């Protein structure tokens, strides 16, 4: 199945063991690979919690995707599992029907204080929702979706709320542009607002976090915008509300104005492990300075830091491979679903639940997704939505993240449409306005007879430009009796190859290869590529469901530098 790739795999495997061996010789350090959590995981915020078995917990932003606000858990910053999602119930926050494609749950701050976890965020919307956009979720059990509260609502003056407790346990909320106020964690009431710092003068001073250390209040922010000029800067003050004085050594972290493969490094958070070593989490984009081809969007990186008493921290620049403090390797972390990086082998057996890494765009219509319906064991039945490319209503689309530079994703599809334009297939999806679909679609021939076609169709063009024309291919009659396997694979970091094959071994049709720049930038500058299955009526009258089976995703390799690929983790 992966034959052309095994050759590449041999080369990359060698380069990884060379890295690891070189590192074993160093003084107890280890090689830390980035992205620490690959695939779209933007705006990370992390805490280390001794009370929960010495576990690191990080949250990442999810925009319009649900379930929202994943809490990732790790004991070694290498092996990660899903602890829970803070936002899983539509009743917690139903307002995902906003019209913009990059709206929704923006950056979250995760904090732990006196036994309770707090996830605080801002819901960006088109203005049709009159409720306060500040959302504060709480739990005393980070491993249980159901234990997360409904949100306490508050009305911050800007995005990116942070939470900080002063020594007297009074909580403060600081948002972008470093406006700080007290916050009542039960009612959301905010006290008088003070501005701490304007940053060094670059645009978008956002993503603030406040820390107290050695008698100083430290403020860390992002500046320059979440693109190639992204930086992390810091200031400090002897009192919480200022005056803050910027660090002469700013920025404390950036890859701006470098040729590094990892770009847009910023939106950082600082946390200390159980051995007293500091780390920074941040977002980064694997794009090189050209910043054109980056289908996975903004990913989560972790890098070591030293923070001496009375000083500003020194944060190691973000690289794909770094020498870092050696935490003992531990796959023994609590959570749901497998360790991240485990291939998807999903057969939708009767009585099983949806796998924990599958996601929806906005809240789904759950009755459109049925595991092993009567007469169709080991399938996921997807009933079509009127369209997947427009509107704010639920769409019949279920996906996972693209988490690897090189990968293969495939599903088997049984689909017997009867109405014109009924379609089901797989998609490489950045937003509703920007996706590449390989579908089985009902069309009519010249004599107006219904016929089934394979169609590779692009909506939107992102950094590529105009959408390339659709490619169609009739489905051989001999293929009709069995499911059809639809597959997409990335054999290099610039293109996806789309193919279909008959499940009964009657051949394979390659529809073509399309550039990954189609799902970079454009209407999805803040999000990243999802890979999934869909069913749509294409605005027609069809209601025929599709039956999806044998869902497979295998990560093959990660690109971590200009010319370096290593096996996926
Ligand atoms: C979203 O739903 C709310 C509540 O039902 C409604 O007031 C609002 O107009 C809707 N927004 C859009 C864009 O449909
Ligand atoms: C930030 O800049 C604005 C506009 O120049 C100014 O009014 C404000 O006082 C500044 N805030 C701080 C904390 O320096
Ligand atoms: C980055 O900064 C440079 C120099 O100020 C500017 O020319 C460029 O437009 C900026 N790029 C982005 C994406 O903001
Ligand atoms: C990596 O590629 C970029 C262009 O994408 C270039 O500017 C940079 O110098 C390269 N770095 C190395 C180490 O070759
Ligand atoms: C070990 O890792 C720390 C943290 O990154 C770094 O400061 C130190 O230089 C590393 N030591 C070596 C020998 O690479
Ligand atoms: C939800 O999906 C079911 C099955 O496809 C459909 O009958 C129903 O009309 C949908 N409900 C909404 C609100 O779209
Ligand atoms: C990447 O893969 C695509 C599809 O197979 C191919 O057309 C393209 O030439 C490849 N690019 C490079 C640099 O090998
Ligand atoms: C369905 O109709 C909407 C509204 O007219 C339109 O924006 C969208 O592009 C249509 N979808 C397709 C697949 O034609």
TrEMBL record:
Keywords: Glycosidase, Hydrolase, Signal. InterPro entries: ConA-like_dom_sf, GH43_C2, Glyco_hydro_43, Glyco_hydro_beta-prop_sf, Glycosyl_Hydrlase_43. The record marks 160 as: Important for catalytic activity, responsible for pKa modulation of the active site Glu and correct orientation of both the proton donor and substrate. GO terms for molecular function: hydrolase activity, hydrolyzing O-glycosyl compounds. Residues 352-553 form the Beta-xylosidase C-terminal Concanavalin A-like domain. SUPFAM superfamilies: Arabinanase/levansucrase/invertase, Concanavalin A-like lectins/glucanases. One of its GO terms (biological process) is carbohydrate metabolic process. Residues 1-24 form the signal peptide. Belongs to the glycosyl hydrolase 43 family. This is Xylosidase: arabinofuranosidase protein. It comes from Favolaschia claudopus. The lineage of its organism: Eukaryota, Fungi, Dikarya, Basidiomycota, Agaricomycotina.
């Amino acid at each position: 199945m992966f034959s052309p790739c095994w050759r590449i795999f041999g080369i990359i495997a060698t380069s990884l063991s060379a890295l690891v061996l070189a590192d074993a010789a160093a003084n107890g350090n280890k090689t830390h690979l980035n992205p620490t959590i690959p695939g779209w995981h933007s705006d990370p915020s992390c805490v280390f919690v001794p009370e929960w078995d010495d576990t690191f917990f990080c949250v990442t932003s999810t925009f319009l995707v649900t379930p929202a606000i994943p809490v990732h858990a790790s004991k070694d910053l290498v092996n990660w599992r899903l602890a829970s999602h803070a936002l899983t119930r539509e009743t917690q926050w139903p307002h995902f029907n906003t019209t913009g494609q990059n709206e929704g749950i923006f950056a979250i701050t995760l904090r732990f204080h006196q036994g309770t976890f707090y996830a605080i965020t801002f819901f960006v919307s088109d203005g049709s929702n009159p409720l306060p956009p500040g959302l504060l979720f709480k739990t005393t059990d980070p491993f249980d979706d159901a234990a997360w509260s409904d949100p306490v609502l508050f009305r911050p003056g800007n995005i990116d709320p942070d939470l900080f407790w002063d020594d007297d346990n009074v909580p403060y909320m600081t948002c972008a542009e470093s406006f700080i106020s007290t916050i009542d964690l039960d009612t959301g009431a905010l006290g008088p607002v003070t501005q701490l710092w304007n940053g060094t003068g670059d645009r978008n001073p956002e993503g603030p976090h406040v820390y107290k250390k050695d008698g100083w209040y430290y403020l860390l922010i992002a500046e320059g915008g979440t693109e190639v000029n992204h930086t992390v800067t810091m200031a400090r003050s002897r009192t919480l509300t200022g005056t803050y004085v910027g660090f002469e050594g700013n920025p404390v972290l950036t890859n701006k104005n470098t040729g590094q493969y990892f770009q847009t490094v910023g939106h950082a958070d600082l946390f200390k492990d159980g051995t007293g070593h500091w780390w920074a989490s941040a977002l980064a984009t694997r794009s090189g300075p050209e910043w054109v081809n980056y289908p996975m969007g903004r990913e989560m990186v972790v890098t070591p830091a030293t923070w001496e008493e009375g000083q500003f921290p020194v944060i190691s620049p973000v690289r794909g491979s770094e020498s870092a403090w050696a935490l003992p390797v531990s796959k023994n972390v609590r959570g749901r679903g497998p360790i991240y990086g485990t291939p998807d082998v999903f057969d939708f057996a009767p009585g099983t639940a949806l796998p924990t890494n599958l996601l929806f765009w906005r809240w789904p219509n759950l009755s459109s997704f049925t595991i092993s319906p009567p007469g169709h064991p080991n399938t996921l039945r997807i009933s079509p939505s009127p369209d997947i490319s427009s509107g704010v209503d639920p769409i019949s689309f279920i996906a996972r993240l693209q988490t690897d530079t090189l990968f293969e994703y495939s599903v088997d599809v049984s689909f017997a449409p009867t109405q014109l334009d009924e379609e089901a297939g797989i998609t490489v999806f950045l937003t509703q306005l920007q996706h590449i679909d390989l579908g089985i679609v009902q069309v009519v021939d010249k004599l107006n007879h219904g016929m089934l076609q394979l169609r590779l169709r692009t909506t939107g063009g992102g950094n590529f430009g105009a959408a390339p024309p659709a490619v169609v291919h009739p489905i051989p009659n001999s293929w009709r009796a069995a499911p059809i396997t639809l597959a997409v694979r990335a054999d290099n970091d610039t293109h996806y190859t789309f193919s279909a094959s008959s499940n009964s071994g009657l051949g394979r049709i390659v529809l073509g290869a399309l550039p990954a720049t189609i799902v970079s930038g454009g209407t999805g500058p803040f999000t990243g590529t999802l890979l999934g299955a869909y069913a749509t009526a294409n605005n027609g009258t069809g209601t025929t469901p599709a039956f999806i089976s044998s869902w497979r995703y295998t990560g093959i390799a990660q690109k971590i530098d200009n010319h370096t690929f290593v096996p996926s983790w």
